[in-house]
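[recover] target loaded
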């Protein structure tokens, strides 16, 4: 770089200024007439390292950004290709048009949504759980206990509910009992 001082601080400032200029140009700030100090909050200005530039360096960067026609071709293409945002009415019309003629299929898809809980029975005598219990449900599903909880009870064909908890966990509990156990589906 002709005329630039040879100290490492100048090189790092120059490199950073170039990097910032590319970033600013890419997002289209080159067309705005206000200064960088006006465009950024004081914190953003500091975090970008612009407060380390001399006033001459900052003015030079702003002059470069203000030149017409320096927006990179990729940014110009993206600006031309970007669709205009649709109004709420237009968006509703587009969504309605996408569903037009598929009403029955959409209703079928809605009915297939995964429930947040299931209810079934455990056939036969049920003695509770205690460590690694496997639950065979009347609906054919098999669930396994994955925590160390214990619960003793003596029931015949009890109704159980398995609910989906937070973060993808599943819990089995007996109807009319307060205890629950964390489970995972085996089959």
């Amino acid at each position: 770089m002709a005329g630039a001082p040879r100290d490492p601080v100048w090189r790092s400032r120059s490199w950073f200024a170039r990097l910032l200029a590319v970033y600013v140009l890419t997002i289209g700030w080159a067309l705005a007439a206000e200064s960088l100090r006006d465009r950024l909050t004081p914190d953003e200005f500091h975090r970008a390292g612009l407060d380390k530039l001399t006033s001459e360096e900052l003015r030079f960067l702003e002059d470069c950004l203000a030149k017409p026609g320096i927006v990179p071709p990729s940014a110009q293409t993206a600006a031309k290709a970007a669709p205009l945002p649709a109004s709420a009415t237009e968006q509703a019309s587009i969504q309605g048009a996408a569903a037009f003629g598929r009403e029955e299929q959409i209703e079928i898809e809605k009915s297939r949504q995964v429930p947040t809980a299931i209810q079934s029975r455990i056939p036969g005598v049920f003695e509770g759980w205690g460590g690694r219990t496997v639950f065979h449900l009347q609906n054919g599903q098999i669930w396994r206990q994955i925590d160390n909880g214990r619960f003793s009870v003596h029931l015949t064909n009890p109704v159980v509910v398995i609910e989906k908890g937070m973060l993808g966990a599943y819990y089995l509990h007996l109807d009319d009992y307060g205890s629950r156990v964390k489970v995972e589906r085996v089959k």
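[recover] notes: The longest helix spans residues 8-26.
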